[in-house]
Design a protein that fits this description.
496 residues, 3 domains, 7-stranded antiparallel sheet
Length: 496
């Protein structure tokens, strides 16, 4: 038996076809009751999926030409999910455990923080998984004979991450085999030149307030040392420039500017364990995608001070040869007009990580309520005499189910930003993200600090708007969007 087809690249999205094909021409031609068997192995953070968990066993009958074809996408998509929290890095060989930090304090179960609040770096926990497939074939020597099973044939290892692939996304195909896949390098999602993009379709120019959280995510490493090696590679190309020694992101650099001139010191977040990142090559799925906090709130939380005056700051990735390996992302200082309330939304984008946007114009809050009522008896019927009281009797509210609905309005935006915001309108996971504020110890006199942190920054919501019209400069000139959201939690109201 041999594997005659598998995906062209080893980093796969959950929503694409994950096709494998196997063949054993001899057994198919000479045996009875033949079926191809595929065991899918995944789970954990180790380098070898075949020592982890068997998550599914599939069987198919050979098709008309004797081939067994499998699509594992529907199975594997259940084993990846968004990253909501920071947390621990991969355990080092020396047994030391490092973590992401919030306000310079390590993540722990007793002091957790969201992925949006990380100071510097955080490896992923759930968004990427490693998997492999064991193929077997079962057959009988006669029409009524006992079934036998062959020894397993192991596939190469692959990664799946919590992204979606659109039907019109262009795929690469290998001319000699017909194997196909999505080429991340061709689409500029590999950080190896000044065209390299982080895992976002956001414009490179964005707007941010003085206390806003924001993260970027990126493919942190690659497997091949050559600049481009398509078939069988992780991403289709090397992370890092041709002169880099390591195939990893070395650091993220942040610089502030005023009137086009740098102001304040350059901020460098080295990709190191103490900063919450991973600085050595590892096949663990946690090492493949990494987050970095680049919002003004994250910068302050990491112990830095914002310049007194600034117009914008830039975010750039570097490799270990000090070469720039990403496009330059600009974050402009955004002021909110007097009297308006700002709402910052964060949502799961189509690459499986988080994007951010501020609605800064007329934002209107509305409470909608649904009441259950009953008819109350007048007077007292179970006492010595009948007493009539003014507060008793008539129609009463037994319970009230109230939700907060907010109509948000954006500032005028570019055509690129308008196209990108489609991902917000269609995202399954959206949150209101509050501004950074001082975490005050409210537990004076108690053992250990007590901080008011639970529910402070992250508030879930759902998109109520049912349609999204793509606006263009030619058709619409100035582009402004209105979005209606409903807060996920009901307003709690006591029963009468």
């Amino acid at each position: 038996m041999q594997i005659i087809q598998y995906p062209l690249y080893r980093m796969l999205a959950t929503d694409e076809e994950i096709i494998f094909a196997v063949e054993d021409a001899t057994i198919v031609a000479t045996k009875f009751k033949v079926k191809y068997i595929a065991e899918v192995w995944s789970g954990g953070t180790g380098a070898n999926p075949f020592t982890q968990t068997k998550i599914a066993t599939l069987k198919v009958t050979p098709n008309n030409v004797g081939i067994g074809i499998f699509d594992f996408s529907r199975i594997l998509e259940a084993y990846v999910s968004p990253d909501y929290l920071g947390g621990k890095t991969i355990l080092t060989s020396g047994g030391t455990q490092y973590s992401s930090k919030y306000n310079t304090v390590d993540f722990s179960d007793k002091r957790p923080h969201s992925i949006h609040q990380i100071d510097k770096h955080s490896v992923n926990r759930n968004v990427c998984k490693l998997f492999g497939v064991k193929f077997k074939i079962e057959y009988a020597d006669t029409r009524t004979g006992t079934l036998s099973t062959s020894n397993p044939l192991l596939s190469p290892t692959f990664y799946i991450h919590n992204a979606v692939r659109q039907e019109d996304d262009t795929l690469a195909i290998q001319s000699t085999t017909g194997w196909f896949g999505y080429n991340y390098h061709f689409n500029n999602y590999v950080l190896n030149s000044t065209s390299g993009k982080f895992l976002t379709n956001a414009p490179t120019t964005q707007y941010i307030g003085l206390a806003d959280y924001c993260t970027i995510a990126y493919f942190n490493q690659s497997d091949y040392t050559t600049a481009i090696n398509f078939a069988g590679s992780l991403l289709g190309a090397k992370v890092g420039s041709s002169g880099a020694t390591s195939r990893m992101v070395k650091k993220i650099e942040i610089k502030f500017y005023l009137n086009g001139v740098q102001t304040g010191s350059t901020i460098n977040y080295d990709n190191s364990l103490t900063n919450g990142g991973l600085n050595w090559q590892s096949p663990s799925p946690r090492a493949q995608i990494q987050y970095t906090g680049v919002g003004t709130a994250n910068i302050i939380g990491a112990g830095n001070t914002l310049p007194a005056n600034w117009d914008y700051y830039t975010v750039i990735a570097y490799d270990d040869s000090t070469a720039v390996i990403s496009d330059t992302y600009y974050f402009y200082n955004q002021e909110v007009c007097k009297g308006f309330e700002k709402f910052r939304l964060t949502w799961l984008n189509r690459l499986g990580v988080w994007d951010y946007f501020n609605f800064t114009k007329k934002n209107v809050r509305k409470i909608t309520s649904k009441r259950e009522t009953y008819q109350q008896l007048k007077g007292t019927w179970n006492e010595e005499i009948y007493k009539k009281h003014g507060y008793k009797g008539g129609r009463k509210t037994f319970s009230t189910n109230s939700k907060e609905v907010i109509t948000l309005q954006s500032d005028f935006i570019t055509e690129d930003a308008a196209a990108w915001l489609e991902e917000l309108f269609t995202s399954p996971d959206v949150f209101v993200l509050k501004e950074r504020s001082t975490d005050i110890n409210a537990g004076a006199g108690f053992t250990g600090a007590i901080y008011n942190l639970v529910n402070k920054y992250i508030q879930p919501c759902v998109i109520k708007s049912t349609s999204y019209i793509k606006k263009t400069t030619a058709n619409d000139k100035l582009k402004q969007y209105t979005l209606e959201i409903e807060m996920s939690h009901n307003k709690r109201i006591q029963k009468a």
